[in-house]
């Protein structure tokens, strides 16, 4: 990680992309085993969305803990959203109303935020939102209306 000088976002982003590249031109780009027959077409070991998840959930926390906080925060805020999983969809239903799709323009940080809310408020309370403190906390934000009529801007 010595290539990430001074928290430079571009260098950090390039370095992480190098770490997670699909290995174009490498031995493993066209083989599945040591000594294996060379494949006719290239093989992608990690898809684009999984790369983004690894960056958000593994590499960025490591860079943050190494003191590259500003660059890690900036890159995290710039990461695009991935296809929402069932947990993100559950939180969208609970907070915004049934059938509300996740606005991909919100990005990865918003998805991670919804997962944090799920762990923090929903995992410990199985009452199905009946005793949840989250709606009262969110009522302090005038642009946020719960259950169906208005989404977060």
Report what the structure shows:
The protein is mainly α and 153 residues long. It folds into 2 domains: 6-78, no CATH class; 86-138, no CATH class. It contains 6 helices and no strands. It has helices at 9-19, 48-65, 69-78, 86-96, 107-122, 134-138. The two termini are 37 Å apart.
Brief synopsis:
The protein has helices spanning 9-19, 48-65, 69-78, 86-96, 107-122, 134-138. The protein is mainly alpha-helical. α2 (48-65) runs antiparallel to α3 (69-78) and α4 (86-96) packs across α5 (107-122).
Give the number of DSSP strands.
0
Distance between the termini: 37 Å
* Integer-rounded radius of gyration: 20 Å
Largest sheet: none
Mean pLDDT: 76
Query: What proportion strand?
Result: under 5%
Shape: elongated
How many domains in all?
2
Task: Specify the helix fraction band.
Answer: 40-55%
Instruction: Give the SSE order as H and E letters.
Output: HHHHHH
Q: Can you lay out the helices and strands and say which pair or pack?
A:
Blueprint: H1 9-19, H2 48-65, H3 69-78, H4 86-96, H5 107-122, H6 134-138
Key features?
about 150 residues; mainly alpha; 2 domains; about 0% strand; disordered N terminus; disordered C terminus
């Amino acid at each position: 990680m010595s290539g990430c000088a001074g928290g430079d976002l571009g260098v950090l982003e390039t370095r992480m992309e190098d770490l997670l590249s699909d290995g174009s031109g490498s031995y493993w780009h066209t083989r599945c085993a040591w000594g294996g027959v060379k494949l006719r077409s290239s093989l992608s070991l990690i898809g684009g969305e999984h790369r983004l998840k690894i960056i958000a959930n593994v590499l960025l926390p490591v860079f943050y803990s190494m003191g590259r906080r500003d660059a890690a925060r900036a890159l995290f805020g710039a990461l695009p959203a991935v296809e929402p999983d069932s947990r993100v969809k559950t939180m969208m239903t609970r907070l915004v109303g049934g059938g509300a799709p996740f606005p991909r323009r919100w990005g990865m940080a918003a998805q991670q935020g919804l997962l944090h809310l799920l762990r923090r408020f929903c995992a410990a309370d199985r009452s199905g939102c009946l005793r949840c403190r989250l709606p009262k906390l969110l009522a302090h934000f005038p642009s946020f209306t719960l259950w169906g009529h208005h989404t977060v801007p």
